[in-house]
């Protein structure tokens, strides 16, 4: 019930609290269905890329496809699979009693038909528009990486608040310290493993620089946290002298090392710095397993970013009403749509006319540099988040001193 002017009023849409609770649960369950659809859609994109030319011979008779394989298959086929329909049809949904909420959480048979149509229509769209979408997909994939980074930083902050002691508390946060230790050990060990795998000889200057710079970024994170020791803790409070940012720094260091490994793993499979431990034969069982694991991990990362809609809200102090949707539908579907763009870039290695190999994903110098830049941005944002409170506070102190010593007029 909602009170207006001290009078109890039945919520709009009827059904009361029980109906709202049922709709809320239905909306939360719908996220997993969309996650499965997203997974299946990207498997379809891979199938069209690698096997569409043989399995879908009928498309050769479509005017925009022609007899060649590149326009509707390989990279062209990947770019023809969109994921924007649900965003367009649920944009602005805020209340559980709205018809668009029912569309988002139900009507699966009708949505299946819409899905099939949305998959088929792009194969009759002129190629010039597909190339334009490819350029837009590059931008959307980059935005998706930033959204994923924001979600990751939000997760790191949650872990730090959950398992590390509050400022002034006498609690030791032993579990948080254990996780911090494991994270720092993993980061250090990861750097060593990267040297062993990707620096077979001293002439691999690019790999040496990338790994060394990653190690320096990790040291910068550790140094930033060390510089704050005692900042959040009160003197004489025992275990609270342990810096509360220790866990977040450890997790971020491990994440940066992971991004470095991902970048080096995307290097072309040629050259003297190509690790012999990588999969060399195309199409063997190890390649297939690694390909499937890569797809599943990216799908899970997209899903976790999509459900974390609160990280992308400009205001988190809004009062939630009983009839409000449990999460932002447009943000959820936007993340999935941009995740589909990111997947498309992985399948074509960020190059619109890239000749891809079967069972390959995200291999090429363009992919390598995208991940390296993403790593540097992640480290820079995190370090700024650590030092910004002190920098801004110092600036305020300086401004106050200037005002205090300014002669009166």
TrEMBL record:
The keyword Iron-sulfur does not apply. The chain crosses the membrane at residues 32-49, 78-97, 109-130, 136-160, 172-198, 241-264, 285-307, 327-348. It comes from the Eukaryota. It is found in: Membrane. Keywords: Membrane, Transmembrane, Transmembrane helix. The keyword Transmembrane applies. Its main location: membrane. GO terms for cellular component: membrane. It is a multi-pass membrane protein. Belongs to the TDE1 family. This is Serine incorporator. It comes from Eragrostis curvula (weeping love grass).
């Amino acid at each position: 019930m909602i009170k207006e002017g001290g009078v109890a009023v039945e919520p709009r849409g009827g059904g009361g609290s029980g109906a709202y609770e049922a709709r809320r649960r239905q909306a939360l369950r719908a996220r997993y269905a969309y996650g499965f659809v997203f997974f299946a859609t990207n498997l379809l994109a891979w199938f069209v890329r690698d096997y569409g030319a043989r399995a879908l011979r009928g498309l050769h008779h479509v005017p925009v496809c022609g007899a060649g394989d590149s326009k509707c298959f390989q990279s062209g086929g990947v770019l023809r699979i969109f994921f924007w329909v649900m965003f367009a049809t649920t944009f602005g949904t805020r209340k559980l009693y709205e018809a668009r909420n029912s569309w988002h959480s139900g009507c699966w048979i009708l949505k299946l038909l819409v899905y099939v149509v949305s998959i088929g229509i792009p194969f009759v769209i002129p190629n010039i528009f597909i190339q334009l979408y490819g350029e837009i997909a590059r931008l959307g994939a980059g935005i998706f990486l930033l959204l994923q980074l924001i979600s990751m930083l939000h997760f790191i902050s949650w872990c730090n608040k959950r398992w590390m002691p509050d400022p002034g508390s006498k609690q030791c946060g032993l579990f948080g310290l254990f996780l911090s230790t494991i994270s720092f050990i993993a980061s250090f060990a990861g750097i060593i493993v990267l040297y062993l795998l990707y620096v077979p000889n001293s002439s691999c200057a690019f790999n040496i620089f990338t790994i060394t710079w990653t190690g320096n970024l990790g040291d910068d994170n550790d140094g930033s946290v060390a510089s704050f020791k005692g900042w959040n803790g009160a003197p004489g409070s025992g275990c609270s002298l342990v810096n509360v940012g220790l866990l977040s720094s450890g997790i971020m260091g491990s994440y940066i090392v992971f991004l470095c490994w991902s970048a080096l793993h995307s290097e072309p499979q040629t050259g003297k710095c190509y690790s012999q431990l990588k999969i060399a034969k195309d199409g063997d069982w190890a390649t297939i397993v690694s390909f499937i694991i890569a797809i599943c991990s990216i799908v899970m990362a997209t899903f976790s970013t999509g459900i974390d809609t609160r990280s992308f809200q400009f205001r988190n102090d809004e009062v939630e009403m009983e009839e409000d949707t449990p999460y932002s539908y447009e943000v959820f579907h936007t993340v999935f749509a941009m995740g589909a763009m990111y997947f498309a870039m992985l399948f074509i290695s960020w190059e619109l006319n890239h000749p891809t190999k079967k069972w390959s994903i995200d291999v090429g110098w363009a992919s390598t540099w995208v991940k390296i830049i993403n790593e540097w941005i992640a480290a820079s944002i995190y370090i700024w988040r650590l030092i910004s409170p002190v920098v801004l506070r110092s600036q305020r102190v300086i401004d106050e001193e200037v005002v205090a010593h300014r002669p009166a007029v």
